[in-house]
Amino acid sequence: MDFLNAIVAILNYVVVPATAYGAQLALGALGVTLIYGILRFSNFAHGDTMAFGTAMTILVTWGLQKLGLHFGPLPTALIALPFGIAITAALVLATDRAVYAYYRKVRAAPVILVMVSVGVMFVMNGVTRFVIGVDEIQFADGARFVISAKGFREATGLAEPLAIRTTQVLTVVLAALVVWALFWFLNKTRTGKSMRAFSDNEDLALLSGINPNHVVAVTWIIAAALATTAGVLYGLDKSFKAFNYFQLLLPIFASAIVGGLGNPLGAIAGGFIIAYSEVAVTYAWKKVATYAIPGFEAEGLMQLLSTEYKFAVSFAILIIVLLFKPTGLFKGKAV
Amino acid sequence: MSFLEAENMTGGYGAADILHGCTLKVEKGQIAVIVGPNGAGKSTAMKAVFGMLKLRGGHVKLDGEDITTLSPQERVRRGMGFVPQVNNVFPTMSVEENLEMGAFIRSDDFRGTMEQVYDLFPILKEKRHQNAGELSGGQRQQVAVGRALMTQPKLLMLDEPTAGVSPIVMDELFDRIIEVARTGISILMVEQNARQALEIADQGYVLVQGANKYTDTGAALMADPEVRRTFLGG
Amino acid sequence: MSQHQPTAAKGGALRAPLFFLIMAGLIMIEGMTSGWNGALGILNMGLISAILALGVNMQWGYAGLFNTGVVGFIALGGLAPVLIAMPPTPGAFAAGGWQILIGLLIAVGSLVLTVWLNGRLKGKTRALGVIAVLVAGFFLYRAVFDPAVEAVQSINPSALGYLGGLGLPTLFAWPVGALLAAGAAWVIGKTALGLRSDYLAIATLGIGEIIVSVLRNEEWLARGVLNVNGIPRPWPVPYEIALQESPAFVERMAALGVDPVTGSTVLVKLLYTGLFVIVLALLLIAAQLALNSPWGRMMRAIRDNEISAAAMGKNVTRRHLQIFVIGSAVIGLAGAMMISLDGQMTPSSYNPLRYTFLIWVMVIVGGSGNNWGSVLGGVLIWYLWIKAEVWGPDLMSLITDQLADGAVKRHLVDSAAHMRLIVMGLVLILVLRFSPRGLLPER
């Protein structure tokens, strides 16, 4: 019984939240890695693109709720998501036209593009705050739980609860769908293949008659979709606050680099590696240990690192990877 | 009139010219080879023909049509195929996808062309689902040539196709190039392995300092004692 | 950056003095319209910003290194006044201070041992050995460290609860701040330099966040979010109260016809200004000498063409590490100065947008690679940043004047503060695009 309790505790406090978080990071990292692969720079504005997309989705959600539209047990934000994506895609495409296109034309060094993306980040951050404010916003509605703590305890008779929120299930399912669609697109369609070709060998892609502007535009649209989806799922799962999205940049970059920048599969693996490490290292293992080891009396919380240092986990993993395998675990393109 | 006529090409990358009135001609279905010492401007001449270099003088005509001002992409559409010396495949894409990308500008059915490429390079058919980056050097060159053939070019340009491959693989590649030429495709090729290349060449150009030093048939150049002594090592 | 045009910038030799004159004029106008206290306040932070920009310019302008963790190095420098100038907490070292230090030594020791083992061992033993040492080191460190922290933090938690400092003069803290930042920079540079340029940007972003969160959470160190107040002022700056209580001062102010309260605040600010100007001048002289020395020429050669510089036998990574450490030291120094100006350490105020990216705007607008440009950019952008806070809502009220009162109008006026971010971002983008050499281009 105690053993089962230990497993349920691990599931409830580590596996479930880390899986949802990992899926969110993976979507974010996919966007970063795609931009890196095609446009060849680390997009510092990605966190704020997520924030902007989420803010737009929230606005549409509010509008829908005012109209009395709901999505049954699912959050209304899900209906609003396509609108959020469309607005965000329009914004990043306009940004590309107004800002980044010039630097591609003059073939600027990547570090200049990184810096320009910092400028874009500023503007997007300001716009987001301007539109929706700096406060924390909860916008999840619909059914709260798929499995509630109380229901689980009553059904199993275990002391430990297991709660799975709708948003967590939704995150994993939607992320899986998005990833499947993305890989189908990249591997099976002509445009997707041309994007991979462009990422692999830009000069040869140009020689083969692949239109760079088309590839770049499609990349931005996909990145906007990924960023908005990741942002909305993160916001539904936790809450929306503009500054938190800026702070997500570090774990997202860490995920992308750990997996190998430019490698989509790596970005997904990286997202889960970072998420699991972060949750596992900042979780207080006292309860699990007490269940698992009979007669064990824990002295402290048995927490390796306090939650305030969760970003240190991504950072430490990032540093270790940079030290030992700078191209990432799945062989990215950058050294 | 020759199929490709690049006459009096003068130009370079920056202020200084690398090509000084260089002239290259290729007849239909024939193989022309450019040889010469390091830094003679061989690859530059090839790039000039392909439009990757702005010319200050001279002109390039393909099948009687002046294409001097066209971009490389445009020239591909007009029937030029180009195989760069390095980075000439998409490493993380499969062999088949590499060929598909070669056919990117084609809107018609290109499966027949792909079969022709597979007939020419059977090993590629065998490895068609493998990533090009995982192949050996010689096989990668075959992918590169195959990719360029996918547009059904009338003129195929190869920049040192045998660089870094073993002598056996080199002989095989040359055999394939002859086969390609037999199908009516003109070939313009830069080669370091001057002796072997001239053996298969219908026309040979020896470039020195961006200008034509000797121009003759491959066999004639091989027989010329001066050329042998200076450029073919005796 | 690498597009060097041989022709001199418009305005030639008079350009820099002209801009500095305009800047001085703006400060004067501020002083005459809104009072000297405020004007000097802006100038003092402007001078610190100038030093910060100088440090970032060394990294970016001299060497092309993109440091996105400036905020961390500022915060680390700011720790120095707490550690150096605050009085030691009585009994803190006896209660657990030494034990904390031992705990930290264990942590560092096991890291060093790990690195050493990593170089010595091979294959499977290497992985096992490294992991074993790390795990053992971590638990030993926690066993020593945790109870000690608790002991220290329980000493009068409402007022103290931390180790305190050494009780030394504040001026000593400034170079110490530089050293702290330099140390962190060395560790980061050692890992991330020599790889792709983006990696340094990402790694510094991380270290910036981590340093700030350490300061926020480690109460034994600098009281975390409880803040440390009353950090002693640097010599020779007096306290306003002391001045106002001094009859001699009051008399002199009366003779000048100045209110003693105003007079004391202005005098204090002026003394800070003097101190900061001295530091800035020394740094500027050193930076100019360095930039024009063979070393500086080599740096720029590396920046403009890393490959050819490496081909000429220059150790690019080593040079980059050097300049990265030096630049971070300057940033740390400014961080320490800022804390001794504020007199308090408030870790929650270290916001990356304000302390990293604003500094970047200063460097780019001033003119990357030009030390004078950084100084100008530092003071000018700081001035605009402060003024924009006032102008934004005013401007928005003006724009929305015709709008009917209501939620939309209120929202627009309320969120005008966020316009600062938008404006700064636009300034950065526009300068990079249309005037990448900045106001005072590199010669």
Automatic annotation (TrEMBL), chain A:
Keywords assigned by UniProt?
Amino-acid transport, Cell inner membrane, Cell membrane, Membrane, Transmembrane, Transmembrane helix, Transport
Query: Topology with regard to the membrane?
Result: Multi-pass membrane protein
Q: What Pfam family is a match for this entry?
A: BPD_transp_2
Q: Transmembrane ranges?
A: 20-39, 51-68, 74-94, 106-124, 168-186, 215-236, 248-276, 311-330
Q: Where is the signal peptide?
A: none
- What name appears for this protein in its UniProt entry? Branched-chain amino acid ABC transporter permease
Q: Which family does it belong to?
A: Belongs to the binding-protein-dependent transport system permease family. LivHM subfamily.
Q: Where in the cell is it found?
A: Cell membrane
**Where on the tree of life does the source sit, at the highest rank?**
Bacteria
From TrEMBL, chain B:
* InterPro entries, per database record: AAA+_ATPase (IPR003593), ABC_transporter-like_ATP-bd (IPR003439), BCAA_Transport_ATP-bd_LivF (IPR052156), P-loop_NTPase (IPR027417)
SMART domains listed in its UniProt record = AAA
Keyword Hydrolase listed:
no
Q: Where is the ABC transporter domain?
A: 4-234
Query: Keywords for this entry?
Result: Amino-acid transport, ATP-binding, Nucleotide-binding, Transport
**GO terms for molecular function, please?**
ATP binding
What PANTHER family does this protein map onto?
HIGH-AFFINITY BRANCHED-CHAIN AMINO ACID TRANSPORT ATP-BINDING PROTEIN LIVF
The entry assigns this protein to a family as follows:
Belongs to the ABC transporter superfamily.
Q: What is this protein called?
A: ABC transporter ATP-binding protein
Q: Which organism is it from?
A: Rhodobacter flavimaris
UniProtKB/TrEMBL annotation, chain C:
Any transmembrane segments, and where? 12-29, 35-56, 63-86, 92-115, 127-145, 165-187, 199-216, 270-291, 321-339, 359-386, 417-435
The topology of this chain with respect to the membrane is: Multi-pass membrane protein
The answer, when asked if Transmembrane helix is one of the entry's keywords, is yes
- Assign the protein's first listed, main location to one coarse class: membrane
Query: InterPro entries attached here?
Result: ABC_transp_permease, LivM-like
* Keyword hit for Transmembrane: yes
Read off the CDD domains from this record. TM_PBP1_LivM_like
The cellular location(s) given in this protein's UniProt record come to: Cell membrane
Alphabetized, the UniProt keywords read: Cell membrane, Membrane, Transmembrane, Transmembrane helix
Protein's name according to its UniProt entry: Branched-chain amino acid ABC transporter permease
Organism the protein comes from: Rhodobacter flavimaris
